Amino acid sequence: MGSEVVEKSGGKASFDVGAAAELVEGLRGAFAAGRTRSYHWRQSQLQGLLKMTEEHEQEIADSLRADLSKPEFESFIYEAAMLKNSCRLALKELKRWMVPEKAKTSVTTFPSSAEILSEPLGVVLIISAWNYPYYLSLDPVVGAIAAGNAVVLKPSEVAPATSSLLAKLVGEYLDATCVRVVEGAVPETSALLEQKWDKIFYTGNGRVGRIIMAAAAKHLTPVVLELGGKSPAVVDSDTDLKVSCRRIIVGKWGCNNGQACVSPDYIITTKDYAPKLVDAFKHELEKFYGKNPLGSKDLSRIVNSNHFSRLSKLLDDDKVSGKVVHGGQRDESELRIEPTILLDVPRDSLIMEEEIFGPLLPILTVTKIEESFDIINSGTKPLAAYLFTNDKKLKEKFVTCVMAGGMVVNDTTVHLAVPTVPFGGVGESGMGAYHGKFSFDAFSHKKAVVYRSFMGDAALRYPPYTSLKLRLMRALITGRLFTILGAIFGLSSD
Amino acid sequence: MNGVYCNSLEGFRPISGGGRRLIFRCPFTDKSKLPLLPAPASCPTISLCLCSASTSAVHPVMADNKDVFDTREASLLVRELRSIFKSGRTKSYDWRISQLKGIERMMEEREKDIVEALHLDLSRPELESIIAEISGLKSASKKAMKELKKWMMSEKVKTSMTTYPSSAEIVPEPLGVVLIISTWNYPFLLSLDPVIGAIAAGNTVVLKPSEVAPATSSLLAKLLDEYLDNSAIRVIEGAVPEATALLEQKWDKILYTGSARVGRIVMAAAARHLTPVILELGGKCPAIVDSNVKLEVCARRIIAGKWAANCGQACISIDYIITTKIFASKLIDALKQALEESFGENPMESKDMSRIVNLFHFKRLVGLLDEDQVTDKIVLGGQRDEKLLKIAPTVLLDVPEDSQIMQEEIFGPLLPILTVETLEESFELINSRQKPLAAYLFTNDEQMKKKFVQNVYAGGMAINDAIIHVTVPGLPFGGVGESGMGAYHGKFSFDAFSHKKGVLYRGFEGDSSLRYPPYTQKKQTLMKALLNGNIIGIILALIKWYGK
Question: Residue B407 CB: number of other CB atoms within 10 A?
């Protein structure tokens, strides 16, 4: 995912370090006053988010169309409906999430009881991305609010219509003393990053992720980084070809035209199976997007000309341009690139070295499907890895051998919609996870509390340390009953 | 950290020291002075130098004929461990168990050596070493061995309607090659307790013990080599240059125990490789004492949580006390009596208390005591012996809040008592500061306990005791804010070194064309109804859908 400088229109007062400091101070005051801690506040804000999304569905879809030509269907389903589901789940579970968890205690502290409390962290910063600008902005906000924090959201300037809509709606529907939107690009983000936050949640790319984490280090702020990576899809020959193809297409082109962090980035299949797979793709793609996909209303466009030329460059790479087996058409004025499939691109080509984040899909071929595991593990750990097969053994091997943020067997991207599964990367694809209860946890501190009374106080642990105490302690630790008895007798005769 | 990093968007490269070397100083010091080890007369003064690689730290145990461990060697080491990890060696249950057993056996067979090393480094009383370090490690490795099968199992979770039919699980996956940088105050426990988690989770490990506890550091290097699989678990001894060389490498996780200042450096270094970190730091841990307590027990537990915890040199030991103006004198009397019972009339001679670790820290602590606005507040103790590096248990009453002793983490045998009119004021006093690693309350008042737990921010808490919450393996141990990030102990240690991989399984049956383009109005209506869980909408939409 990219985040780049967009020329800001003049005239708007700039948001500088001073303004950022003031903002954080105000929020810190509200947090310290305890405003965000009550169940009722959290509930009311989640209800606000839900209501806001319900009442402005069309406006949301319109802004996404303006930013990305995103098809309405995708906007309604992947952004609005997903967010509403998050809100509903949080509203339903919040009471349970907030209840302290009892923990067992050990002999060493007998008699005692213990629990783990979920405590809000304080004032948190959420920096979001442009590809699912509504959902990826507000889904972490759901977690932050549910956990009882004050929040600043910085939506991506690369999706300006949605950014300004978010600023407007959040101001209208949520408690502005505790939840705020700051619009802007690099200068505003830098001003925000200079402040001390209690957590920073960033969705975007690894390069900026490093900058965020280094900035966070200055204040010892923990971070959640939701990054991307080259998510592979392994297609075995033992599969339902049609369904596999359709599920790859919907995860690639049907997800913002490949501009999604969990989209399949490339495919690995066997040499023998590749031609069949390519044919099936051609067939299904035509059924989905017609004979002229450049004109299809069911595909998002490329977000901006920066990304358009980046993707063009990937295609025009000498090592690659002869490998196109499907598509390849583009329209620069409309920022559109056709669903494009490339076969057997060399592994040292640009397209195989960076995250594609667009409608290009290279297919690598191997002799035996198991070789794909090594290919995947030899790169950096991707955010997601997919496998299509009916072979149980292969599934098992895939799950144990391939390292990735998350996985789906026989489908793509849908794990995002399952709130019981943590969503997050590992290594280059990020750190920390969220969704469902994990979102609540991501914005909570788990405070361990032990309760004791003044009864049953044994002299054993206090100085002076006599040799009897030493013997007894040693016996207690090793659990030698006989020695314990001996030592106790020894102690009593002392 | 001021000035250590330039604000370049290129990746916040460290700019100290002229080269690419990070500033990296001894844990628990906020001074720019060099920490000095108490050197035997025969040795030259050993300083942990921060200036340049050529005058790198002379480790007292690493004889000078050994080459300096530099970046190149560090990168070779990591490459080696990475290939071992890739070979899958550390992933098997058997390997993990065998290493955990190795640790347990090592603790059993080498107890004497360990006690001796700790005595050399800290004059630590034997019983304290056994209770705090050896027993802690034994139970941690026992628990890991007992639970490992369960921990390693993937967790089945429910799936939702949107992906029906499907099943899902969360698979714990080792991270790869991890770095553990440890500290000097509980140098055995705080080195190996994280190692247990890293091994249990199936990682290869590099441990960098603290050079400030040299005897333990070299014992760790020797024992781990002897008892554990050294193709996958390695100890690198050393100080700043070695730690810097290690931090330049790409790790899959770094766990650091020490000070917030170094914590920032570790995290900034980790950021360059997107390495997640666990930072176990410290802070000023308060203890609130109510007037309705059983005073004798309370005083003993304060002693156990302060002076009997490595002479106050523990990250969770009580840093200061808050009590009411009226109750303060009673508390001081009780502390005086209990201290005498524990350490005798002349505590400077007691064998039951650790010494101050080194001259640097001795001077730092004396500096805190000798501050003008503080020195006349001493109500108990105050004696010191520079040669033996001993300071008597010292209690101070009503020190000003802006004094140095109330500004930095004390990490030693000094205990200031602040007084308030009503005890509730103490909550705000604590919350107005950085979040501490632990907060303690002594009271019999149930309301008060509830308020305390609800309102005071801290890494962890104990009511009516101190320190002991870290011995409960069912509880996560870790700080928040300035006191750190991430947690470990028990299952949490396993989790700290695992990635939780969500896996969703689907079949090919029942594939509905609903989610595929071309997107018709009908599909949209039905999909919305489905996602909203609106049954009537679904039925209506279905009728339309099939009726077309």
Answer: 12
pTM: 0.91
Phi, psi (deg, nearest 5) at residue A228 = -125, -120
Residue A452 lies in a domain: no
Strand partners, A430: A226
- Contact (CB<8Å) A220/B267: yes
Catalytic residue among A183, A261, A284, A355: A261
pLDDT beneath 70: ranges in chain B = 1-67, 161-163, 533-548
| Number of C-beta neighbours around residue A72 at 10 A | 18
Q: Is the Cβ–Cβ distance between B280 and B255 less than 8 Å?
A: yes
A163 and A254: one domain?
A: no
Q: Distance between terminal CA atoms of chain A?
A: 73
Measured from the Cβ of residue A378, the count of other Cβ atoms closer than 10 Å reads 9
The ipTM value here is: 0.93
Q: Is residue A186 part of a domain?
A: yes
If you write DSSP's letter for every residue of B364-381 in order, what string do you get?
A: HHHHHHHSHHHHTTEEE-
Please spell the DSSP secondary structure of B470-488, one letter per residue.
GG-TTS-B---GGGEE--B
Chain A residue closest in CA terms to B462? A450
Q: How far is A94 from chain B (nearest CA, A)?
A: 17
Which structural domain, as residue segments, surrounds residue A319? 232-424
Q: How many CB pairs under 8 A join A and B?
A: 328
What are the chain A neighbours of B527 within 8 Å (beta carbons)?
73, 76-77, 81
A189 and A288 within one domain: no
Q: CATH number, domain at A71?
A: 3.40.605.10
Mean pLDDT for the stretch of residues A91-107: 91
- Do A208 and A124 sit in the same domain of this protein? yes
**What is the predicted pLDDT for the residue at B416?**
98
Buried b (16+ CB within 10 A) or exposed e, A399-427: beebbbbbbbbbbbbbbbbbbbbbbbbbb
A72 catalytic per annotation: no
Q: Indicate the average pLDDT of chain A.
A: 92
Closest chain B residue to the Cα of A441, Cα to Cα: B486
Q: Is residue A456 part of a domain?
A: no
Q: How many domains does chain A have?
A: 3
> What number of other Cβ atoms are within 10 A of residue B473's Cβ?
24
Does residue A316 sit in the same domain as residue A299? yes
Are residues A326 and A299 part of one domain?
Answer: yes
**Same domain? A12 vs A126:** yes
A428 touches A380 (CB < 8 A): yes
Tell me how far apart the alpha carbons of residues A150 and A144 are, in angstroms, rounded to a whole number.
8
CB contact under 8 A, B343 and A407: no
Asked whether residue A78 falls in the same domain as residue A110, the answer is yes
Residue carrying the six token digits 């570790």 = B266
Return the closest-CA partner of residue A157 out of A148, A166, A146.
A166
CA distance A163 to A64: 10
For residue B57, the model assigns a pLDDT of: 35
CA proximity to A145, closest of A192, A200, A87? A87
Select from A239, A375, A388, A450 the residue whose CB has the most chain B CBs within 10 Å, as the one to mutate to test that interface.
Answer: A450
**Residues contacting B226, CB < 8 A, separation 6+:** B106
Q: What is the pLDDT of residue B66?
A: 54
pLDDT digits (tens, 9 = 90+) for A483-492: 555 555 554 4
| Positive or negative torsion for Cα A268, A272, A274, A276 | negative
Instruction: Tell me the two tokens of residue A486.
Output: 């001996």
Choosing among A243, A300, A421, which should be mutated to test the B contact, i.e. which has the most B CBs within 10 A?
A421
Cα–Cα nearest to B496, from B280, B315, B349: B280
| Residue A251 domain-assigned (yes or no) | yes
> Are residues A223 and A315 part of one domain?
no
What CATH code is carried by the domain that includes residue A417? Answer: 3.40.309.10
Q: What is the mean pLDDT of residues A75-92?
A: 95
